[in-house]
Amino acid sequence: MKEKGNKLLDSLAPHFKHLTTGKGRIDAQLNDIKDVIGANRYTAFPSEDGGLYYVCSEGDGSSVWDVPEEYRSMLDHFREQANEIRDYHGKGERVDPDIIKKCIEALSRQAADAKLAEAIAETLNYLADNDENMRQIAANLGIEAIIKALRQHPGNEALLRIFLTLLEKFVHHDVFKTRIGKVGGCQVVVLALKTQCSPEKVKSASKLPAGWMKCKDKKGRTYFYNTDTKKTQWKEPTTKKSPWRKAVDAKGRTYYYNKKTKETKWEKPADFTENNPVVMTGHHNLVQRLLRMLSKLTFNSKKNTELSVNNNGIPVLNMCLEAFPKIARIVEVVLMVCSNWVFVNDPNKIKVRNHCGKAIISAINTHHSDLRVYKNAIRAIGNMSLVDENVLWLTKHHAVKAITRHMNQESNDDEAKETAIKVIGNFAKSSEDMSTAGEATITETIFDEGGAHAILDTVKGNEDKSSLLLAAIEALNDICLETATAEKLLQDGLVQLVVDTMKRYDYDEEMVEPTVELISTLCYSKTAANEFVILDGLQVLLSAMDTHEQNEDVLINGQISLNAIAHNKMHREAIMDNDGCKMMLKLILTNIHNKEFLVEVLTTMARMASSPKVCEHIAEHGMHTLMQLIEENKANADMLDYAFKVLGFLAFRTEGVRKIVQHDGINAIISAIGEHAREQKLMVRAIKTLDFIAMAHPDFAAIVNAHGGAAIIRKIAKAYSHVPDIQESSKSALIFLDDPSAKAKA
Predict the structure, then answer these.
(1) CA–CA dist 186, 191 (Å, integer)
(2) Comparing C-alpha atoms, which of 365, 408, 409, 359 is closest to residue 384?
(3) Any alpha helices (H) in 39-96, and if so which ranges?
(4) What is the pLDDT confidence band of residue 16, given thresholds at 50, 70 and 90?
């Protein structure tokens, strides 16, 4: 029945092509799989000479060298089915799970036969278009069978391609991705990459035209396969060279010359090609697909990344970079994988730098005009730079120069520029920790190699692009931590940029916060602080502090800036004229327990109080606030020391002393002496302040005495007889307090 039925089908086939070719034919072949596999009793095994021999599973387990007919029938069935699938170009539909099970069993059992494995893989790939079929493949250990076959033939390009196509359907599912890694998928891909990057393979493949690859059959014969047309041939394909050559005349004009016809023309001929065009060959495409598979397997998978790294994945990535330095699409994927792997942990950051660091920097210089390569390269460097020792190495190998030289080229988009700026900022963060005596610091190197100027050039004219500007401000803040470097940038409009940014984005706290921090950094330079005031920076700074007073960083960095600006006597009254004192007094009350801010604001007020005009203002409008601060912080000796320093400056002026006395300041000082007698620094400050008060007028000295001032000063002087500062201040104060002990000593 079967024999005559098949003859009948063959005779009817020409009349029902829609059923007997394409999908119809494939479905019929799929239904025959169980019978075809079941009829075969032989398993293929590899021999020492690279061939195969076949062992029978029945009887005495005899083996033969020639292909048994039943095995050949199974092989022919799968290969014919694979060809039908390739020609069909359609998607597979759900089939009987037992068909899938039999295919996987055959693949696992016959993995030594690359041709059969390739044909079965083509069938499984077709079936995997259906989700239920894909689940059946996974449930029947199909992933494991695929990896097993691939492990046995890592250098077989045809088999490699079809397996990659099949695995790509699984790798998007996290569960399957984990299984692929667990059964050795990462190791197999790394091994395949290593094979494809060998000098012999690269040299052989480089001679072929685009789309062609060199293969060997099971008998060791060489044939050639076109990955685009899916056709094979025995003869080696050659690239047809163009007879046209490009030349330049004496005036620098480009023209074209035909070597054969001796013809010349100005217009580029249609069949003109460069002498050494860099094109993607079939071999390049295969390497790229392997790299993409490795990228997908390890992306967001710490375990698969670990498996890949532990199986020499990083040295193999470097092999790819060294084997294909001019193939941008291969370099791009290698850099993407490097960037992902170094993000996982610090040891990976160091390993990638050791093996691939030079090649990554070289990739920027070679492919800087290729946006995808440039982005992935600087991301990889940026992730590596999160380890300080890498920053030192990268700086010494001119990574900064490579990045910044091409930062503002026309091919770059804003994302690339922003990433580059952030990477330079990462470098600058490590400068202080990694500086070595006698050598240029990292920040100095950044400046010398154009990093700081490139950042400024990037934002000029792009001030409306907030994300780009924010990255620039943050990076410049790290670069300007070295005052000498900051001063070199002043002539390039750095202070003007800061002031303009504050004015433009005064409402945006995300922008204001790092900008105020940059101001505080810049103001350590007297030149920068002076320029800031001249450019009306005081007004925008005070406004920002007032508007964003709930932001502690804005508040503290703003106050640090004011403190630095107040170093210059000329600027103290400018701060007051811009209502700076008024604002500081207000902020003291709203931040009465913020120790870090209070230290800065009290230091600033003490410095400013040396100006008569400012001193009178603080005395008149701020004494109540200062006394409230002292009361709220009476248990904190350090804070009292800063507060009494302000009172000491106020006590130099009559109006200041009067206000101190009116607000019961004398009692506050004497109480602090009694409470913190063991705090030597505070005792020096407190006695000096009482000395200044007593010195101002006999009436004030009498009030100090009325509070028991002389007695307590004598007690402290006795306790600190070994401290010259206390002895000197005590002696002076007791004289003005008209104390008998001072007269006796005199």
Answers:
(1) 9
(2) 359
(3) 69-88
(4) low
**So what's the architecture of 17-170 in CATH?**
Alpha Horseshoe (1.25)
pTM: 0.77
DSSP state of 237: P
Q: What are the backbone angles phi and psi of residue 64, rounded to the nearest 5°?
A: -140, 155
Q: What is the mean pLDDT of residues 360-387?
A: 94
Would you call 264 helix, strand, or coil by DSSP?
A: strand
Taking CA atoms, 259 is separated from 98, 242, 250, 253, 262, in Å, by 64, 9, 20, 19, 5
Residue 694's DSSP bridge partners are none
Torsional class of 230: left (φ above 0), alpha (ψ -120 to 50), beta (otherwise): left
The two three-digit tokens of residue 184, written as one number: 């050795």
Q: Is 722 helix (H, G, I), strand (E, B) or coil?
A: coil
CA distance 401 to 449: 5
Q: List the structure tokens of 274.
A: 């460069």
pLDDT at residue 276 tops 80: no
Average pLDDT, the chain: 89
CA distances from 264 to 247, 275, 606 (A): 10, 17, 84
- Can you give the residue ranges of every domain in the chain? 17-170
Give dist(CA 149, CA 147) in Å, integer.
5
Helix intervals (H) in 464-508 = 466-479, 483-489, 494-504
How much is the pLDDT for 745? 52
Residue type for position 514: P
With beta carbons less than 8 A apart as the criterion, state whether 585 and 625 touch: yes
Strand partners, 44: 54
DSSP state letters, 551-620: -HHHHHHHHHHHHHHTTSHHHHHHHHHTTHHHHHHHHHHHTTT-HHHHHHHHHHHHHHTTSHHHHHHHHH
Q: What is the 3-state secondary structure (H, E, C) of 397-443?
A: CCHHHHHHHCCCCCCCCHHHHHHHHHHHHHHHHCHHHHCCCCCCCHH
Helix runs in 633-664, H state only: 637-650, 654-662
590-641 per-position pLDDT tens digit: 999 999 999 999 999 999 998 888 999 999 999 999 999 999 999 999 999 9
pLDDT in tens, 463-521: 999 999 999 999 999 999 888 889 999 999 999 999 999 999 999 999 999 999 999 99
| Burial (CB count within 10 angstroms: exposed 0-12, middle 13-18, buried 19+), residue 11 | exposed
CA distance 236 to 243: 21
Distances (CA, A) of 72 to 67, 99, 179, 739: 6, 19, 33, 122
Residue 746 pLDDT grade (very low, low, confident, very high; cuts 50, 70, 90) = very low
Tokens of 193: 């990459």
Distance CA 40, CA 35 (A): 9
Which structure tokens are listed for 539? 């007004």
For the record, the structure tokens of 168 come out as 């790509």
For the chain, percent helix, then strand, then coil, each to nearest 5? 70, 5, 25
On the question of pLDDT at 99 being above 70, the answer is: yes
